[in-house]
Amino acid sequence: QVTLRESGPALVKPTQTLTLTCTFSGFSFTTSGVCVSWIRQPPGKALEWLAIIDWDDDKYYSTSLKTRLTISKDTSENQVALTMTNMGPVDTATYYCASGDCDSYNFDHWGQGTLVTVSS
Amino acid sequence: SYAVTQPPAVSVSPGQTASVTCFGDKLGDKYVSWYQQKPGQSPVLVIYQDFKRPSGIPERFSGSNSGNTATLTISATQAVDEADYYCLAWDSNTNYVFGAGTKVTVL
After folding, report:
1. For residue B76, is it left (φ>0), alpha (ψ between -120 and 50) or beta?
2. How many CB atoms lie within 10 A of CB A75?
């Protein structure tokens, strides 16, 4: 079955760069049509889509955050990484990775999420 | 940039039908999916490509999308359906955008 697990620091300081890793199983980027995305959710607030990468290494970003985000994949390790620069308190959120069929434009499997707090 | 809007809350009596709407310009021309999120849990896909239901999702969940409005309908609502529901739209310019979520309360 498909599983995804997010990992990374629980606490970062303002202005630092955050790097998160999504490690997955049950599918592979060697399969055409596979997409993995990052989504976040501040405490008590709505989901916000951040970035997506597909099997062909195409990458797309949230228009409001694109200058701060970089998404990448390691096909051999079944991992997707997200870096976000210049972190601030408003970036405190649970960060999820999720997978799906690119052509379906949805996310049918989600990780458990990882809470990142930005504080000095 | 593209945006979709949802009502903040919907209340429904057990056994009745709940309708959650998602509004956006020409939303009917875009793919819409719906996610259920219960407190402390990750979102779960309940409807994709406007009306398709993933395996394991009860038949009481259905969806439609036309004009400027997509609708998630929960028939014969049960207490277990109480959750936040988010619509997600894909737009060729904005890529993915979530609605602000609707809290469905089963009274």
Report:
1. left
2. 13
pLDDT at residue B42 greater than cutoff 90: yes
Helix (H) or strand (E) run with residue A101 in it: strand A93-101
Residues 6+ away with beta carbon under 8 Å from A31:
A55
Contacts of B41 (CB under 8 A, 6+ apart): none
Mean per-residue pLDDT of chain A: 97
- Quick one: residue B40, left, alpha or beta (phi over 0 = left, psi -120 to 50 = alpha)? left
Paired tokens of B39: 């407190």
Task: Yes or no: say if B65 and B32 are a contact pair by the CB < 8 Å rule.
Answer: yes
In a mutational test of the A interface, the residue from B96, B102, B103 whose CB has the highest number of chain A CBs within 10 Å is B96
Interface contact A47-B35, CB threshold 8 A: yes
Q: How do residues A65-74 score in pLDDT, each as one tens digit? A: 999 999 999 9
